[in-house]
Queue: 2 jobs
Job 1
Amino acid sequence: MTAVRLPELPFALESHGPEGEWAYEGGVLTGSAGAKQDRFVPPGGDTLEPASDAPRLLGAAPDGDFQLIARVSVGFAAAFDAGVLYLHVGEREWAKLCLELSPERPTVCTVVTRGQSDDVNSAVVEGDSCWLRLSRTGGAFAFHASADGERWTFVRLFTLGTEEERAAARIGFLVQSPTGDGCTATFDRIAFRPNGPGDLRDGS
């Protein structure tokens, strides 16, 4: 499948990178990464190796502020397996909000790549699922996580690229299995809101 429309989203999605076996049924989006698939440029590394990629399903975000929300569940099998909300601004400008096995316990993790990637662990998660939210607010992007989809914990605020590049951002979903033989993740309760969060830090 190279393109798909989800009824929850006001934009079409297209697949990028390796084949992700993306499927959508009954409000649930499923994707799979193959062995050793990841999208990460190690700090101090010069390039994103051609083989260092992971399945992505992305679409052009509408103008203005927004929130992309999903409950992410991951079939963890190896360290750093993850389901991800993904933001793409440029070939070397992108970010990930992950539910990741990092390396022994499910954890909310973030990566922001500006030529090279950083890597930040946030909160440990009980179980194999968590709500994640990617937002654009003005000239910045925000990451949040939630146990129930109601009260949100602030994770990160950052910017990427130029104003023109940010306006043309693509957003969506990614699955990775950097050290393992493969990983499957599901995304349900998917929602898109054409506005940013009212307050980044008050739980709303």
Job 2
Amino acid sequence: MAIPADKLMWMYETMVKIRYFEETMVKVYTEGKMPVFNIGAGTVPGEMHLAAGQEPAAVGICAHLRREDTVTAPHRPHHHAIAKGVDLKRMTAEMFGRKTGLGKGKGGHMHLFDPGVKFSCSGIVGAGMPQAVGAALSNKMNNTDWVAVAFAGEGAANSGAFHESLNLAALWKLPVIMVIEDNAYGISVPKSKSTAVANNAIRAAAYGIPGALVKDNDPLEMYRVAEEAVDRARRGEGPTLIEIETYRYLGHFQGDPEVYREKDEVSHLRQKDPIERLKRYVVEQGVAGEQELAGLEAQAKREVDEAYTFARDSAWPRGEEALEDVFAKTSEG
């Protein structure tokens, strides 16, 4: 199956945008913090979980989605948000805790919410899967062909929410897709020490639904598998479970000492970088040349730089602004 040229170009530009956004955050996040464990409020408050290396999971699915489709994400959500089309400036401002953010600076990076493109992340392991099932149920009851997608890490596949969500989705033939991003570690625990099966895709059989494994962080295969799953959901044929073997270049959180990693593990993974692999494919297939791709890269980086500038220039919520929309407003009298 040939992937349309416009889709390939969108995937490449979006993957570059995600990577540059995350790598920029690596630098910005340390500003004003104590070294080693990044302690202190700094420019960007709270913890920070980055997804550099995991771009194929997000773009492979979102290349097939519409604005009306729902996406829920876990606590490592930026790649999903960017691929779904979340407003990049307001998303960055939210991470900075500024009042121009998606949640007026109250949610931070683990609680991004953009109803304009039907995107949310809960920040709690596995919590996005029941939400996606609820959205899919609504879609079915309203006789639309909209779909819902829930992203989660491989650790979440051992939670009750995963199994309960799959059971209901299969029982009611809901238009939902569960995407498990296997980045090899649940915090610091290797998958081999926490999960009884070799891959979570085979768990689909227990619920009578299709399961697919995408190996080696392959964006092209992720696109193809996702296309079949999304089309199936739109036809009313029910859910699909997908697991992608992906890479986490950075720690579980910024400041993570990563003592659980093997020596040279990350440098070995970077030799198989999915962005470079997609770039070679696009050039070899004659879809675009180096100069055209350089233009896409420059545009993606400009958008990211503008988002960071917007966030820096935005004001912190002050006084009563910090409590706006926190407490329910009551009528007078």
